[in-house]
Write a structure and sequence with these properties.
Chain lengths: 542, 195
């Protein structure tokens, strides 16, 4: 893809193999960033097929293609892959490619550790998937792996534990690398308060990773010890505490939610500013919101446990409502940036606006669930499935596509097709709402999540059918995206260095950038150095 | 925003990248152990009696010796770091070797202690917590010993100098952390457990 080689070299006897080897042993943050994207979109395709299989099973009452145990494996691996091997690594891939460029650095602080933290990902992912070949099948206790179920299942559950420990280790190493890079490798003039908001979002994400991911690792070690070493962490008959897992898991799990969304906020904030032709309404407000959310996210974990009856309801309800305040501030900043802007509805902007609208719904239905009285009624129903997909798909995945259309020319030197992008956006928006909006109503009508079958007389059948149709519409949108990538990569490089009139440093170098990133850096006097450069040139020309 | 940035003015006083990386790694490790301590106190709070019936009283003598060994080793590695900063590489090597030796003695003595305790990892919640928590700590001591051996190899190869000893500085931070965790484990299991 982004290989900058003279044509004559391509005619040499063994170019393909040499090129492949280059990718396998690279420590260039840009190539590693692209590897992250390739790996993540591959797992995305696998997890997406799992989702389609689940929706096919649920299209009508009765068990058509999957027995319950097989269905349990599907939703467990769908959730696990999408969260740990798709959404987070997609944002980490953008971070790898663009954080060093945005701060004017040559590379990440520890390039070889960077390569390691990437390569651990496919290893961990394949370890989890290899459970399908194990006796008793793959992990089947849900992505949350609650005991006692997760202590009773077969070897697939051990492979799930091992895979997640590998992925967790990778993300901790990556987090350390990002923080050191951002704190130590900024170009002269790039003060903290001039860093692009996307870089800020990756810094906040990394803080969450290094402080929360090890807690999951600890929980997984406890679970594994219980399963294989005869310990009793989660066995109440022997003096253990079964709810301990939920505390440990969600102490990680809720900061995890913000690890999965902060990067997308960064992307979308930047894109809205560029395609409105205005500076961010309040740069400081964005940074402050990111940091407040980072801090508060450690105080909300037990809102996942209201229904256990074993947690302090008012405390966790209040902290959860509190964290929605800085999130609300972000919405006002996005609206303020759009207000009276010269809006350009290019694909990145469409996806960014789609993000704002869908994430708003995901925020509001989340605030509802933060009220214990409401939560007792909707806990573990399809309402929760609707909520989390409005946040993670309507939110992060829309943000990721915004980023893909925005940065693809920088990464490859080629513009993705605008026409296909617009088709993808509308199909994705319609398909997404067809799939997930009915789930709110299903939840209110009492349909529990994680069931392979339901009775025909519950009034759930029609809405499930609509959701299934929507899922296949999403699939068509995804096929359009992959076709767009495939067709675009076959075209010659023609993208200019700065096709969008953007603001941040990555647009000051060539598309794609040279191995050393910058031939020369523009002066940095604000958080929009490329805008400053453009206006200075305009004035000089006038 | 008006002031012109002077980004590298304080460079010499800043922590170097690798040392900062180790500080962040230790922060991460601290959360890892914190989860286990959280587990300990959750389980203890839910227990009717603590330690549960049937667990023999923990003999404190060897554990006290273990504590002394590890605290001593932390002092010794600081002496090594101080020596390298003042340019005395020979003394730095001696102190580093001393740290490694104390680490190995700690590991061997703890294994001996395990053989004397009279209960195992499968003996209920207390056995679970005691062996998993001290065992994970032990793995960290082992990891530290391996890391310091690599640093020692660098020192023998003449790669450490007053201006360039990030690996030793990082190793010392990690070693001190492992030491602090042991002190917390000792306090939790030996001093705070009713006898």
């Amino acid at each position: 893809m982004a290989v900058t080689e003279a044509p004559s070299r391509a005619l040499a006897p063994e170019p393909e193999r040499g090129r492949l080897l280059d990718w396998l042993k690279t420590t260039d943050h840009k190539k590693i960033g692209i590897l992250y994207l390739i790996s993540s979109f591959s797992f995305f395709a696998v997890g997406g097929v799992f989702a389609l299989l689940m929706r096919t099973e649920l299209a009508q009452p009765g068990t058509q293609i999957f027995q319950p145990h097989a269905y349990n494996q599907l939703f467990t691996l769908h959730g696990t892959l999408m969260i740990f091997l798709v959404i987070f690594p997609l944002l980490a891939g953008f971070g790898n490619y663009f954080v060093p460029l945005q701060i004017g650095a040559l590379d990440m602080a520890f390039p070889r550790i960077n390569a390691l933290s990437f390569w651990l990902l496919p290893v961990g992912g394949l370890t989890i998937l290899s459970g399908f070949f194990a006796n008793g099948g793959a992990a089947a206790a849900g992505w949350t792996g609650y005991p006692p179920l997760s202590e009773q299942l077969g070897t697939g559950q051990d492979l799930w534990i091992a895979g997640l420990i590998i992925v967790g280790t990778a993300s901790i190493l990556g987090g350390i690398n990002f923080i050191v890079t951002i704190l130590r490798m900024r170009a002269p003039g790039m003060t903290m308060m001039r860093m692009p908001v996307f870089t800020w979002s990756i810094l906040a994400t990394s803080l969450l990773v290094i402080l929360a991911a090890p807690v999951l690792t600890a929980g997984l070690v406890m679970l594994f010890a219980d399963r294989r070493l005869g310990t009793v962490f989660f066995d109440p008959t022997q003096g253990g505490v079964v709810l301990l897992w939920q505390h440990v898991f969600w102490f990680f799990g809720h900061p995890e939610v913000y690890m999965l969304i902060l990067g997308a906020w960064g992307v979308v904030t930047e894109i809205i500013s560029v395609f409105s032709g205005k500076p961010i309404f309040s740069y400081r407000g964005v940074v402050l919101s990111f940091l407040l959310i980072t801090a508060l996210s450690f105080s909300v974990w037990a809102h996942h446990m209201f229904a256990t009856g074993a947690v302090e309801l008012p405390f966790f309800s209040v902290t959860t409502e509190l964290i929605s305040i800085p999130t609300g501030v972000l919405f006002f900043i996005w609206l303020g940036t759009l207000w009276k802007g010269k809006l350009r509805f290019e694909p990145p902007m469409l996806f960014a606006l789609g993000f704002v609208a869908m994430f708003l719904i995901g925020g509001i239905n989340g605030v509802w669930a933060a009220s214990p009285a409401m939560d007792f009624a909707i806990h573990d129903t399809y309402w929760v499935v609707a909520h989390l997909h409005y946040v993670l798909f309507g939110g992060t995945i829309f943000g990721v596509f915004a980023g893909m259309y925005y940065w693809f020319p920088k990464m490859t030197g080629r513009m993705l097709s605008r026409k296909l992008g617009i088709w993808q956006f509308w199909l994705q928006l319609v398909g997404f709402n067809l799939t997930f909006f009915p789930m709110h109503i299903l939840g209110l009508r009492g349909m529990p999540r994680r069931i392979a079958d339901y009775a025909p007389d519950r009034g759930w059948s029609f809405l499930n059918l609509i959701a299934t149709v929507g899922a296949f519409v999403i699939a068509i949108a995804m096929v359009i995206f992959f076709v767009n990538i495939f067709l675009t990569l076959r075209k010659p490089r023609s993208a200019p260095d700065d096709p969008w009139d953007a603001n941040t440093l990555e647009w000051a170098t060539t598309s794609p950038p040279p191995a050393h990133n910058f031939d020369s850096l523009p002066p940095i006097h604000s958080d929009r150095p490329v805008y400053d450069l453009r206006t200075a040139r305009g004035e000089a020309g006038a | 925003m008006s002031a012109v940035a002077a980004p590298r003015e304080q460079a010499p006083r800043e922590m170097s990248g690798p040392v900062l990386g180790m500080v962040l790694f230790v922060a991460s490790e601290a959360m890892f152990f914190a989860a286990f301590f959280g587990g300990y106190f959750t389980i203890k709070a839910n227990a009717k009696e603590w330690p549960p019936a049937g667990i023999p009283h923990l003999e404190i003598t060897i554990a006290t010796i273990l504590t002394v060994i590890l605290v001593l080793s932390s002092a010794v590695i600081q002496l090594s770091l101080r020596s390298i900063k003042s340019g005395d590489t020979r003394r730095a090597k001696v102190f580093l070797a001393g740290t490694i030796a104390l680490g190995i003695v700690f590991l061997l003595l703890q294994l001996y202690d395990y053989s004397q305790l009279g209960f195992g990892v499968k003996d209920g919640a207390f056995g679970t917590l005691f062996y998993v928590m001290t065992g994970i700590h032990m793995a960290h001591v082992l990891g530290g010993v391996v890391f310091l051996c690599l640093v020692f190899g660098q020192a023998m190869g003449g790669l450490l100098s007053p201006g360039n000893h990030d690996s030793l500085a990082a190793g010392a931070i990690y070693w001190d952390f492992v030491d602090v965790v042991w002190v917390l484990l000792f306090t939790t299991f030996y001093l705070l457990t009713p006898r």
